[in-house]
Amino acid sequence: MSGRLKFTFVLMASAAFIPGQAMAAEQAGASASSDSTEIVVTAQRREERAQDVPIAITAVSAEGLRERGVTNLQGLQNQVPSLVIAPNGQASRDVMSPSIRGQSASFQGSPAVVVYMNEVPLIAGYTLSNQGGPGNFVDLQNVQVLSGVQGTLFGRNTTGGAILLTPAKPTDKLEGYLQGAFGNYNMSEFEGVLNIPVSDTLKVRLVGQARDRDGFTHDVNWNKDRDDTHTRMARIGIQFDPTDTISNYTMASYGYSHSNGSGSIAKRFNTDYFVGLATRPISYGGSTYPLGAISPTYNFCGAGTGPADCSYYTNLIAQQNARGNRQTAHGVDDFAKIESWGVSNTTDIDLSDSIKLRNIISYSTLKSYYSNDQDGTIAPIYNTGTTIESRTAPRDWFQQFTEELQLQGNVLDGKLNYTVGGFYFKQTPKGKMDSYSINVCANLTEAGCSIGYASVAPRSESKALYAQATLDLGVLTPALDRLRLTGGIRYTWDTVGGTNTSFSYTPTPGVVGPAPGTVLSCSWKTAYTINPSDCEFGATLKSSAPNWT
Q: How far, in Å, CA of 213 to CA of 409, rounded?
């Protein structure tokens, strides 16, 4: 961003104007000042100072996030060793898949590095490796990155690590701020926070953000700017402490993002492959013929019936080179849209001075539409979406439910700390998920190509029981004080599965999807049918295993 102007307005109310809270506010201010260099983390599912946690952790405070300009997941990449944030080979700027020490999300698999918000795993996509929606990095208390396997205390199977986002909780002060920024490409950004202490037991924190920016790659075929940004986010946090022994925090959030997709720039077609594919020998009717002569679908350059002429593709590359890197011409009208919302609740009950019962429950949804012209030209070669059909049904549409019950405590004068708990996770389709794509074909217009279609319904369920304890060996002798031994075990039962209906068909003008009676070619077997259910297949895998620390 070559030009950017930022401004901030801060609203604060003196504690003297809030009856009964002046003394508490002064004490809280003194504590915050004296402990300003400390970061309280929850890497072991309990609040501890970062310097007391004996694991590989990088913690960044709220002030550190502001100083470093970290406003999204990708901003952490330069702050944490071995952390890489990238689209994971997927042509969407909404995908920022984290990888630690080479462990990342596999294609259509569970993420190896799980992102948590308020101790709840963010809902993850299936066709794209995104986790959660936009706006997760607004008004955070801190960010913690845990490197390595986190299989004992954390709810999802994290073989690479975990990223913990801790939202700023409501405080006992009436305060807030408004922050804005303007820049080139008509960039505008607004962020606001309002903290309201309703009473001694009820506090509310409101957070909102909006960001818009025009795209920096112009599509001359559709007269649109690609690589643009339009996001909205809202969050409310409610802290309710009805007694001295009960604390209840509820957080609800909503995020929305839409754009004209990514501006892919074509650099080269593998025309040698086109020629080789068309001239590949194939047996047909007792004789051998070039594949391109039998099936025009594979006859990209006319190599099956005569001399190869790939000038159509080389001319497209020449035209793109003449346009430069900030203009393109797509055959598909790209777009991307994500909508997510969720609510979580954490209830802490102090059963005694040394025992706490904790419950964390959440529900969230994620809905995602997108279409990408990944070859970056008007040629219908590699399009993971269509101009019309892809806007009619989401590619990802999930709902997620989690429940976790913990018992935390300490004995031996605080020398032995323990956590025992159970975790449940279930992610299922919220509705029908359809995907359309342009099949590889030699026709030079989209209308002449067959359409690939798939309807998926994946599901995942996980149950676990776990226990972990840390013993300070100072209980044996003062000479070993602060030398600690940690041990833990977790047993997990997982079930993953789903169905997929996949076929190709010839589109009917003016009809979305296959018209009734259209002949369908099942993509996973050699068969033709007019019944989509004939092209359905599925599977279920159940597994269980112990993990230990």
A: 50
The answer to whether 128 and 396 are in contact (CB under 8 A) is yes
Scan for tokens 């929305």, then name that residue: 256
Tokens of 70: 């970290």
Burial 13-52 (b: 16+ CB within 10 A, else e): eebeebeebeeebeeeeeeeeeeeeebbbbbbbbeeebee
Token look-up 């226990």 returns 467
Residue 65 parent element (H or E): helix 62-68
d(CA 1, CA 227): 13
- Residue 322: CB atoms within 10 A of its CB come to 8
Return d(Cα 429, Cα 426) in angstroms, integer.
10
**Helix ranges restricted to H, 162-248:** none
As a whole number of angstroms, the distance between CA 344 and CA 505 comes to: 43
Say if residues 196 and 173 touch (Cβ distance below 8 Å).
no
Q: Are 303 and 274 in contact (CB under 8 A)?
A: yes
Residues 6+ away with beta carbon under 8 Å from 478? none
Residues facing residue 161 across a β-bridge? 113, 147
Give yes or no for a contact between 348 and 357, defined as CB atoms under 8 angstroms apart: yes
Which residues contact residue 294 at a Cβ distance below 8 angstroms, ignoring those fewer than 6 apart? Answer: 282, 284, 304
> For each of the chain's 549 residues, which pLDDT tens digit applies?
446 676 666 765 544 334 333 333 333 333 333 344 578 888 888 888 877 777 778 888 888 888 888 888 888 888 888 888 877 667 677 777 888 887 777 767 788 889 999 999 999 888 888 888 888 999 999 999 998 887 688 877 778 889 999 999 999 999 999 999 999 999 999 999 999 999 999 999 999 999 999 999 999 999 999 999 999 999 999 999 999 999 999 999 999 999 999 999 999 999 998 888 888 888 877 888 888 777 776 778 877 777 888 898 999 999 999 999 999 999 999 999 999 999 999 999 999 999 999 999 999 999 999 999 988 999 888 788 888 889 988 999 999 999 999 999 999 999 999 999 999 999 999 999 999 988 666 556 555 677 889 999 999 999 999 999 999 999 999 999 989 999 999 999 999 999 999 998 888 888 888 889 999 988 777 778 999 999 999 999 999 999 888
Q: Which residues of 120-152 are buried (b: 16+ CB within 10 A; e: fewer)?
A: bbbbbbbbbbbbbbbbbbbbbebbbbbbbbbbb
Classify 13 as helix, strand or coil: coil
Among candidate residues 4, 162, 147, 163, the one with its CA nearest the CA of residue 69: 4
From CA 197, how far away is CA 173, in angstroms rounded? 6
DSSP annotation of 93 reads T
- The C-alpha atoms of residue 233 and residue 255 are separated, in whole angstroms, by 4
